Each structure stands twice: as C-alpha cells, then as structure tokens.
Amino acid sequence: MGITRRSVIVLPAGAVLAAGGPAAASRRRPPRPVIFIHGSAGSAMQFRVQAKRLASNGYPIEIIEAHEYDSPNIVTILQQVYAGLDARITRLLAGTGADRVDLLAHSLGTYVTQGYLNSSPERAARVAHYVNLDGRPAPAPPGGVPTLAIWGEGDPARAVAGAANVYLPEQSHTQTVSSAESFQEIHRFLRGREPHTTEVRVARVANVSGRAVLFPSNAGVTEASLEIYRVHRVSGRRQGPPRRVAVRGDGGFGPVPLSPHDRHEFALLRAGQSTHHFYFEPFRRSDSFVRLLTSRPGEGLGALVDTSDRHTALTFGRQKEWWGGEGDHLWVNGQDILNPATAPHARRVIGVFAFDDGSDAISDLSRPLPEFAAQTFITGVDLFIPASAKGAVSVLTKERGGGYTSLNVPAWPSSAHRVSLEFD
Prior knowledge:
Elements: E1 2-4, E2 8-10, H1 22-28, E3 34-37, H2 48-56, E4 64-67, H3 74-96, E5 101-106, H4 108-119, H5 121-125, E6 127-133, E7 147-151, E8 164-167, H6 175-178, H7 180-191, E9 206-214, E10 219-220, E11 224-231, E12 238-246, E13 252-258, E14 263-270, E15 275-280, E16 287-294, E17 314-322, E18 329-332, E19 335-336, E20 349-355, H8 370-373, E21 378-382, E22 392-393, E23 395-398, E24 404-406, E25 409-410, E26 417-423
Parallel strand pairs: 3-4, 3-5, 5-6, 6-7, 7-8, 9-16, 15-26, 17-26, 20-21
Antiparallel strand pairs: 1-2, 2-8, 9-10, 9-13, 11-12, 11-14, 14-15, 17-20, 18-19, 18-23, 22-25, 23-24
C-alpha cells in the first residue's frame, strides 16, 4: 500500500500491525544491539549523530557499534569482513543476552550486508532487522530479514522488493544516513514506535572514545599518542594543560570524560611527523564513534597538500553534503569557499581541503583543485590562509535549512601542523 507524508512509503502486504501484536512486543523489549556498516571511503563517522540520537532514546551506547573495513579493497577482503561481522555479532549477543542484532548499512555497505545476509540462513537468522540506506536495490529482502530501505535523491524506481521503502527525494546520499527524518524512520522500524526525540540530548558528562585511523583503509594508527585540550570558544586556542590519552595498537583511545559544554582539540602526535590537530563542536553526550582520519607522510590526500611556514592548511568534514550556491556556506576568514564550481551538487562533497596551492600567496576559487576533485566525495580549493604564531583562522558555516556554526582555530603553519575540523 502507499502512504504519503513528506515522503512516499511502500510497505509489503500485511505490514500493518494490530495493537497488542508484534509492534507492541517490540515496544516492551529492551533495544537490540545495532551495527552500522559504512560505505565507500566511509567510517563510523557517518553514523555518529544517529548513534547519539539512539542513545537519547534509551539505547545504551555500549550496544551501538560500527563494522569498519578497507573499502577500496572490499572485493579481495569480503570473506574476512564477513568473518569479522560473525565474531562481532557473537560477542554482542553473548554480552547483552539479546536474541538477535539489527544491521544498518549505507551505500557500498549495502553490497556488503546484502551479500552477508544472503550467504547463509544461519547468518540471516541472527539478524532481526536490516536498514538499507541509499544503496543497492534488491529483488527481495536480503536473507528474508525484515527490511527498511531509505532512498535519497535519484532514481525514484529504486526499491528493495517486499521491504518498507521510504523516499526522501530532497536529501542527498550521505544525508540519508545522518538526518533527523531518516532517524525517525529507523527508530519506528526498529522499535515499533515514534522516537521520544530526534534531538541529541545533552548529558552531564560526555564519555568520548574512538580510533585514530588511516583514511580510507580504516587501519589503526600505530605508535601515536594523543593530547586533548579544552579550547577557547572564540579563538580556538588552548586553555590549560593537556589531558594525555593512550592510543592503543588498533588506534583506539578512551573513553575520556569531557564537558558537553566545552570545545576541544585532539592533537595526534607521531614521532617525526606533523602534529595533526582535530577540532570538534561540543560533545553533547557520550560518543564512541569519533574517528581521527589521517595518513602516513607522503601518502593519501595529505601528500597532495602544499605546505609552508607562511600558510595554514585546513580540512573540513561534515556528514551532510555541501551544495555550493544552494544554501550551504563555508566562510574562511570571511571568504566563502563553497560555490557551484568548488562544491557542485552532483559531486556529493563531504570533505573539503583548503590550502595555498603552489604556496604563492594567491587564492583562486574559480575551480576545484583537479587532484582532489578526482576523488569521491572530496573537493580541494586554492585558498591562502596566512599562518600566525598568535593569530586565529575565522571559520563560519551555514547549513542549508539550518543555522550558523563558528569553529575558529589557531593559524598553525602547515609546514609542521595539519588541521581538521568536523562539523555536526
């Protein structure tokens, strides 16, 4: 049948549940463990806000996990990824006493998860629900598992036959993972009722943990240490001594208790390498999906960034595409670096590199830097950002359909410092 809201939902026959039936039972039982499987060049970061929304609706943060993998090499490692998912599900079921888990996957992750569920009845039997986020269509619910498929902009004929198909045609590819509207559909499907809230409710203390990983392989950073600083809300400069945090062999760190009202810098230190500074908006509640995305010297996108003592280089991330010229703005020292050339709608940009290309102190925002535009979900802009020992870089963003966020940072010289900013 069809139901019209802001979206169109197509439910399989018999999907309407009587009061006191399976939907009521779902409302009474404790939440099942949730596992998120990311897409190409992705990580747990895509699901950060949804994990916190789940926690705001009664899910213990300890039962929300992400299954990460080396997406560029997925074809050759697929069986290893399946075996790791087997082990993760076994551990979660044993630790929680739950009967089954719920799986959610995005984009390339839907290829991984559909293959997993179809690979054996035994695997499918341990999964209660599957959420297919803007990924692969299918002729039937994978493995026979009850399925919700959420689709963003694009071909309106896409569907998982026999599933609940929800269409959010005004939302972009990654936005379907992180939006409040998507969360509402997910919660209703998993719990049989509306969520109490789609907001991230502020807790008294935020216990923050995560991993330092190499992008995009998700391999853990080794032989590193981490310093966490409380920073000034206006200048972004450090306030007080650091909290020194051990980085484990898999790149993992924490949990570290932080104030949900403060802003923080995470400084990743590796011998003989530039300090990599990460800046976040306040952690409003506990967060186990923090990822410090970095690379080895001379490798990855970092190797394409020109550096000097004279300029600062910045990387921006947001789990909702930036549409230049369509309501999204990203001002750096008062200059908007998003436009239809640098961040066109069709490019699905969620990562922006900004630095002085050629170290010539000249900016050119008329086109994206070709080597970055060739990457999926990435753009690069030629912007001269003067470095200064005591100065700051003014960063202000406006989200389409939303408000303004300021996230100023020190003007670190790019010759010895890498700087990444993550917007909620």
